[in-house]
C-alpha cells in the first residue's frame, strides 16, 4: 500500500497541504471532496446554500499540455553553454507519458553517468526481484554436532547496532538474529556451539577492476560481500570501512550470541557450501526491495546498489558478481525495451567505464514513472526532492522556482556531474529529464549549480 500511496506524490511531485475553507466539506481517504448533508435547524432561517464541490486540485497523472519544443530550446540552450559544465555535455527531456522527445542536445552520445547509474539498478531490481522481495540472513545447523553457520543473504543494511526508530527503512538486526538463534538452541538443549560463516552467495572479486583503488580506503564503498553489517562501516557515523566485512559480521554475531547465554567454542571461521540444504535455526529479513531502492536512491548508497545488482544476477540466472550483475541488468532492461544506450559495469556508478546516453536515461525514468508500471514507481519516489531530501537537500534554494518541484538522482565523480529525474512543468505536464557532463573543469559545486538551473528551466 505504501508504494501505491507514493504514486500520488509522483504524479504531482509537490508536497501540497490540501485544505478546505468551505464549511460542511471534508476530505476522504480517496481524496474526493464530498458534500455533508445540511443539518436541520429549529429557528426559521433561509434554506442553506448548497455546497458546490471543487474539481481536483491537480490533474491526475501530470497530463497538462505538452511544452513546446521551441520554448524548451530557448530555456535550455543558454544554460547548456555554461562553461562550468565543460565541453562534453548531453541533455534530454521527454514526455513522461509517451516517451516522446521534447528536447535533445547530444542526447545519443554515451556519457559517464556516475551515480545516476543507480536509477538503472533500481529499475532493474524492481522489475526483476519485485518490490516486495526481502533479503534474508540466516543461521543453519553445521555439518558437525553443536555447530552452526551464519549465512549471509546479501543484505548490507543488516545492523549490529541499536536500531534508530527514525531510520527508514527499518533494518534487520543482528541482535534479533542472535536472540532467535539462542532461543532455538536452548530449546534443543544446546548451550555451547562452534560458529562459522558462509558468504558464498556472491562470487568473483570484491571490488571492480574499473574502480579507482582509493574508493574503499576513502570510505566510498566497502568490499562487496554477501555478509556484512552496517554497510561494512567500522562504527556508526564513520565513513571508514572494515577490510573484511564478512569476518567482522561473524565476530559481531558471536558477541551477540554470548549475550544471550550461548558459549562459543571457537573463533569464527569462513565456510562455503556447507549451508546448502542445512536445517534453518533462525532468520531475519530486510525491508522490502521497494524500500531498499528508495534508500539507495535517496542516500546514493553504493553498498546497497551493488547488493541489488547481485540479487538481480541471481534472479536472472547469472553469477552474483560484477560481470553477472551487469549482464542481468541488461537482460531486464531488454525486457522493458529500455536497454539501448545503456552500458554498465557495476551497480553503483563508481565505475568510470559506464556509459549511458541522456536520451536512454530520460526514457528509463519515464518508464519508471508510467502508470502502466506501478511496480517501478519506487524508483521515482526514492529520488531526492529539490531542497528537501537526500543529495538534493542542500541544493535549490527556497527562492528557486524548482524548489520542491524536482525529484532527481544526482551523480558525481571526478570530472563528472549528472542529474536525472522528473518534474512537472508550469502547465502541469510530467516530464523526465537527464543532464550529463563528463568533462567538468575544476571548481566544486559550479557544475551542480548549472545542472540545477537546467532542471529549473524545465520546470518553468
TrEMBL record:
Residue stretches spanning the membrane: none
GO biological process annotation, one example: peptidoglycan metabolic process
Designated name of the protein: D-alanyl-D-alanine carboxypeptidase
GO MF annotation: an example: serine-type carboxypeptidase activity
Source organism (scientific name): Planobispora rosea
Keyword Heme among record annotations: no
Keywords, comma-separated and alphabetical: Carboxypeptidase, Hydrolase, Protease
Pfam families for the chain: Peptidase_S13
InterPro entries xrefs: Beta-lactam/transpept-like, Peptidase_S13
Family: Belongs to the peptidase S13 family.
Amino acid at each position: 500500500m505504501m508504494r501505491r500511496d507514493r504514486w500520488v506524490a509522483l504524479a504531482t511531485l509537490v508536497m501540497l497541504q490540501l485544505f478546505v475553507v468551505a464549511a460542511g466539506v471534508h476530505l476522504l481517504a480517496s481524496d474526493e471532496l464530498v458534500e455533508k448533508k445540511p443539518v436541520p435547524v429549529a429557528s426559521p432561517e433561509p434554506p442553506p446554500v448548497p455546497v458546490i464541490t471543487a474539481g481536483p486540485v491537480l490533474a491526475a497523472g501530470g497530463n497538462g499540455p505538452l511544452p513546446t519544443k521551441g520554448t524548451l530550446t530557448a530555456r535550455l540552450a543558454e544554460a547548456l553553454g555554461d562553461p562550468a559544465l565543460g565541453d562534453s555535455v548531453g541533455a534530454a527531456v521527454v514526455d513522461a507519458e509517451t516517451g516522446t522527445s521534447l528536447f535533445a542536445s547530444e542526447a545519443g552520445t554515451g556519457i559517464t553517468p556516475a551515480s545516476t547509474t543507480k536509477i538503472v539498478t533500481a529499475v532493474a531490481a524492481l522489475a526483476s526481484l519485485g518490490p516486495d522481495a526481502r533479503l534474508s540472513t540466516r543461521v543453519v545447523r553445521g555439518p558437525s554436532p553443536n555447530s552452526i553457520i551464519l549465512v549471509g543473504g546479501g543484505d548490507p543494511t543488516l545492523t549490529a547496532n541499536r536500531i534508530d526508530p527514525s531510520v527508514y527503512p527499518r533494518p534487520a538486526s543482528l541482535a534479533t538474529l542472535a536472540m532467535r538463534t539462542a532461543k532455538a538452541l536452548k530449546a534443543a538443549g544446546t548451550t555451547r556451539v562452534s560458529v562459522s560463516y558462509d558468504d558464498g552467495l556472491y562470487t568473483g572479486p570484491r571490488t571492480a577492476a574499473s574502480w579507482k583503488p582509493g574508493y574503499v580506503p576513502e570510505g566510498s564503498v566497502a568490499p562487496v560481500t554477501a555478509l556484512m553489517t552496517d554497510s561494512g562501516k567500522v562504527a556508526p557515523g564513520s565513513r571508514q570501512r572494515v577490510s573484511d566485512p564478512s569476518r567482522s559480521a561473524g565476530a559481531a554475531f558471536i558477541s551477540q550470541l554470548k549475550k544471550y547465554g550461548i558459549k562459543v567454542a571457537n573463533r569464527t571461521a569462513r565456510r562455503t557450501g556447507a549451508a546448502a540444504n542445512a536445517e534453518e535455526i533462525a532468520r531475519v529479513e530486510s525491508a522490502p526491495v521497494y524500500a531498499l531502492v528508495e534508500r539507495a536512491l535517496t542516500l546514493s548508497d553504493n553498498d546497497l546498489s551493488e547488493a541489488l545488482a547481485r540479487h538481480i544476477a541471481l534472479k536472472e540466472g547469472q553469477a552474483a558478481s560484477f560481470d553477472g550483475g551487469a549482464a542481468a541488468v541488461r537482460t531486464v532492461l531488454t525486457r522493458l525495451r529500455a536497454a539501448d544506450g545503456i552500458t554498465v559495469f557495476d551497480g553503483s556508478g563508481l565505475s568510470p567505464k559506464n556509459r549511458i546516453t541522456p536520451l536512454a536515461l530520460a526514457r528509463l525514468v519515464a518508464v519508471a514513472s508510467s502508470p502502466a508500471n506501478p511496480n517501478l514507481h519506487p524508483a521515482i519516489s526514492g529520488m531526492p526532492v529539490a531542497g528537501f531530501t537526500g543529495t538534493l537537500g542542500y541544493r535549490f534554494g527556497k527562492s528557486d522556482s524548482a524548489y520542491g518541484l524536482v525529484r532527481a538522482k544526482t551523480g558525481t565523480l571526478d570530472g563528472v556531474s549528472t542529474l536525472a529525474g522528473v518534474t512537472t512543468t508550469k502547465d502541469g505536464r510530467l516530464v523526465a529529464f537527464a543532464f550529463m557532463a563528463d568533462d567538468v573543469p575544476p571548481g566544486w559545486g559550479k557544475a551542480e549549480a548549472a545542472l540545477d538551473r537546467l532542471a529549473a528551466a524545465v520546470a518553468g
